[in-house]
Specification:
Elements lengths: L6 E5 L8 E5 L4 E7 L3 H5 L8 E9 L2 E9 L2 H11 L3 E9 L6 H18 L17 H20 L9 E2 L15 E6 L4 E8 L2 E4 L4 E2 L12 H11 L3 E2 L5 E3 L2 E4 L2 H9 L5 H4 L1 E2 L6 H11 L2
Antiparallel strand pairs: 1-2, 2-3, 3-6, 4-5, 4-6, 7-14, 8-9, 8-15, 9-10, 10-14, 11-13, 12-13
């Protein structure tokens, strides 16, 4: 089990979708997230003068897009992106509270973040390639990796999950009578003879490789639906192979919500709490969940 940490979020203007800062006790890092509509206020802040890494998030031609960069003075770089990059809607500035990151540090962090984003394949990058890592001492690399470890905990907490790799390696099952039983669920589309299998692990619905899915999105909303966009992204990254009939999940993939997993399988908006059934039974995920709560009473 990982070590617990305390994350402090400060909503600067008192709005959940406004500017916010994120800090962790005993971590030198500092994160500022803001919508483009608040860029004037954001760039007046002290940390905007610092050396750091930045992430731009938005949509281009109806598809999500991100850009990762670094700068010795973030304010000047962001100003240049106002006109040159008109697609972004949200920015994240990553600095240190004491402004003790220098050019080599942020070039290293930029390179690592681009690597991680490409590996996770959660969002397309405008970056053409992985930037060259700066030359750092062994001690400095260790410090930057520790800085990065905590940053990768902070970013998903502020809804920047493009670095989270949802593809999971198949787990080796060993006999351990003391280990908790992992619940297994199935989703079937009887008319089409399709079967998908998933395991509930660490609070995520992990759809297993080999699970079958509809070849096309058949639900209303077409490409505008958020789960349709997720399905398209999984096709682009090779997690969902639609060249076969039926389509197949090629790698274990972790979904944060049962309904997201169900929508990708069924090709339409779905209530995963009802669609997924405990393997070998007619018990829905919702019924199974209610039983687990009752056991704790």
């Amino acid at each position: 089990m990982g070590k617990g940490r305390s994350l402090e979020l400060y909503f600067i203007d008192g709005k959940p979708d406004g500017m916010l800062t994120a800090e962790v006790f005993n971590w030198t890092g500092h994160v500022l997230k803001f919508p483009r509509t608040r860029i004037a206020e954001a760039l007046r802040r002290e940390e905007a003068e610092y050396t750091g890494v930045y992430i731009l998030l938005g949509d281009a031609e109806g598809q999500p897009l991100a850009y990762i960069g670094e700068a010795e003075e973030l304010r000047a770089r962001l100003r240049s992106h106002i006109g040159k990059k008109d697609w972004w809607e949200t920015a994240v500035l990553i600095t240190s509270a004491a402004n003790n990151l220098h050019k080599a540090h942020v070039k290293y962090l930029e390179s690592r973040l681009v690597e991680l984003a490409l590996e996770a394949r959660q969002m397309p990058l405008e970056n053409g390639n992985v930037p060259t890592r700066s030359s750092l001492s062994e001690a400095a690399v260790a410090n930057m990796e520790e800085f990065l470890d905590i940053l990768l905990m902070v970013l998903p907490a502020i809804q920047v999950d493009m670095f989270v790799n949802k593809v999971q390696a198949p787990k080796v099952v060993e006999k351990d009578l003391s280990a908790p039983v992992v619940p297994v669920f199935e989703l079937t589309i009887k008319k089409e003879g399709l079967l998908a299998t998933a395991e509930l692990r660490d609070g995520e619905m992990v759809v297993l490789a080999g699970s079958q899915a509809r070849k096309n999105w058949v639900g209303q909303g077409n490409s505008d639906h958020s789960y349709s966009k997720l399905r398209s992204l999984l096709q682009e990254t090779g997690v969902l192979d639609t060249t076969t009939s039926p389509a197949v999940i090629t790698k274990n993939y972790a979904f944060s919500k049962p309904s997201a997993a169900a929508a990708v399988i069924t090709g339409r908006a779905s209530n995963g709490r009802v669609e997924w059934k405990l393997k070998g039974t007619s018990k829905t995920y919702a019924d199974w969940e209610a039983e687990q709560i009752e056991k704790d009473d």
